[in-house]
Amino acid sequence: MEKNQFSLPVDELPTKWFNIIPHLPEPLPPPKEPENGPSRMDFLGKTMVHECLKQEMSTDPWIPIPEEIRELYIQAGRPRPLYRAKRLEKYLKLKKVRLYYKREDLSPTGSHKVNTALAQAYYAAKEGKTTLVTETGAGQWGSALSYAASIMGLKCVVFWVRAVYDWKNERRTLMKLLGAEVHASPSKETSIGRTLLAQNANHQGSLGIAVSEGLEYAEKHSDSVYCLGSVLNHVLLHQSIIGLETIKQFEIADDSPDLIVGCLGGGSNFGGIALPFAGEVLQKKRECKFLAAQSQAAPNLVKGEYRYDFGDVAEHTPLLKMYTLGHKTDMVPIKADGLRYHAAAPLISALRHHNIVKAVAYPADEKAIFEAAKIFLQTEGWLIAPESSYAVRAGIDEALKAEKAGQEKVICMNISGHGFLDLVAYKEKLEF
After folding, report:
1. CA dist., res. 340 & res. 331, Å (int)
2. At the N or C end, where does the chain have fewer CB atoms within 10 A?
């Protein structure tokens, strides 16, 4: 029987996270203070996990994963399998192109977000914090941090983009089952939220607004700490577990990817699978290309400018060098709301600036996206998240392009989450 699943034994779970910073073509532009107002660096020092901020600035190529976090990873189902998409290949009539996908949907909350949630919760507990505070867009990160907080015996407060909070009732139920306190953002819990609601009582919210609310709340509540689900270096560091496993799994499969594809909003799942491979490209150990799949609702890598910008609407964060649409840009809500962020992670942005990462943006009506998800379900049998469907859409498009050109190619797609709590979106977009 020809194998289509490639799994690692538990004892081969990586013992270190990979840090690409020392391998970049030039030093990563550091965070900057704005010209006016209080120190944003001092603000982050007061509101975020100190060990994570230490990792944020590290230039060590490898960061040891504490044994306790590795145990939490194993409890949460790591290592996760790599699949060869043979049925999808057959459906697409591929002869020269091989498709693979990494299964990050097989976590307790259904997404890759657990990889950094467990690490941040562990470090927060060690520092004596009792409450984790965060933002969430599509809800996967809020669910993951709620889970991690529960596992570590901590409280969790989540500010959830209102446009998604209003229709994802089941995911809200999951967060509350895990003990979280969940607020639609903008909310009346913070000054920035009250200001925005006074201007528009039906404000749909955005990830940048939810970040602002979470940071403000953490600052004003003792024993609370803010945890971010994407964008920052330490988040992508924790997510590198994905790519590190995938490198080993391709060795088992006796194959090697020519193209890594992932969806991208802020960059955590894309960076998680891509950065370990990109590190080997930069060290000239392999050849591989990288494609980020985005929505035209927030095409930060496609239409953004590479410049310093704030990470949130209320300007609590330092200025970060990113591809950005502007931190106060209005973005139309989409069902894959995890991709609706104004800027891409500084690490991904730096690689994009050096033409190592490329990007494509799909129409905000998402018809092509949900059709790709339907094809994936009916061939491979897995219902994936709307965000992950962008990776599958781009993977299919690239496969067909290569096949038509007569090119042999190996494409790996990262499946960042499952779609079981997104059925309302599927019903609407596919008109059932």
Report:
1. 7
2. N
